[in-house]
Write a structure and sequence with these properties.
Blueprint lengths: L2 E2 L12 E5 L4 H12 L5 E4 L10 H4 L9 E4 L2 E4 L1 H11 L10 H16 L1 H14 L7 H10 L3 H12 L3 H24 L10 H15 L8 H11 L2 H8 L6
Parallel strand pairs: 2-3
Antiparallel strand pairs: 1-5, 2-4, 4-5
């Protein structure tokens, strides 16, 4: 369930819910939204990832991937946003954000895992190409410092690729992957209000930050009207305003 043993022992003494996050991170958005849906009190540890505040030995000692978000609950460290929101929902079951049937539960987890599976190759690549291209160059010293800390091969490769710049082909491949999943979501949402079953679940919380951030870089949601209508409903929720717009008014 994403639980890790930190080498930075400072966090082992934390009491309550502590979240390491960034305003612009879609992964952090879904964790904040889950906390707000549950109306849970939490302590913010904000890291400005645009200033690389997360690339430190201290933070890698908490999250071995050096990414946000990281949740610390009474000294227990959980990484990966899908695992974090699942942990929150199971640990604080009031106002459940999961369906009751096993079939719908499997479907919810499929949507959650799918978002994680395409995060680097599709979501981040598309966003970086359209928003960050040419702004991510780094010196050899910066690259070496990052690679000394980072042991996740996929993240090292992405870090190097984003520094060099993504190609038109990279961006097109990412867009095609996104199109595939949003077309599937559009088909589903044409016939029902939410991604899974008849209730708002962690699946919706997982995907609405992707809509928000991708919209901000010009992804064409006009081709998926049911997805756009679904997103509009989610934008009206108090949790969306507090978890997303208050931290990132415009992406």
């Amino acid at each position: 369930m994403g639980i890790v043993t930190p080498t930075n022992k400072e966090v082992l003494g934390f009491k309550g819910l502590h979240l390491y996050h960034s305003g612009v991170s879609n992964c952090a958005m879904r964790v904040r939204m889950t906390l707000e849906e549950k109306k849970l009190a939490w302590t913010s540890h904000h890291l400005d990832i645009t200033k690389k505040e997360h690339i430190t030995a201290e933070y890698f000692g908490i999250n071995p991937n050096g990414v946000v978000p990281t949740l610390v609950h009474d000294g227990v460290v959980i990484i990966e946003s899908d695992d974090i929101i699942d942990y929150i929902d199971q640990t604080f079951p009031e106002s459940a954000l999961r369906p009751e049937s096993s079939e719908d539960l499997d479907e919810m987890y499929w949507w959650m895992k799918s978002a994680g599976a395409i995060h680097v190759k599709a979501v981040k690549t598309y966003i970086y190409y359209h928003k960050m291209q040419g702004k991510m160059k780094q010196s050899d010293q910066q690259r070496q410092a990052y690679e000394k800390l980072q042991t996740n091969k996929e993240l090292v490769e992405f870090h190097n690729a984003s520094s060099k710049g993504f190609s038109v082909a990279d961006a097109k491949e990412a867009e095609q992957t996104l199109d595939h999943f949003f077309e599937k979501a559009n088909t589903r949402l044409t016939h029902q209000d939410w991604l899974v079953g008849e209730q708002f679940t962690l699946a919706d919380i997982t995907w609405v930050p992707l809509h928000f951030t991708l919209s901000g870089v010009g992804y064409n949601f006009a081709q998926f009207p049911a997805v756009q209508a679904w997103a509009n409903k989610l934008h009206a929720r108090e949790s969306f305003a507090k978890a997303i717009l208050q931290w990132c008014p415009i992406f």
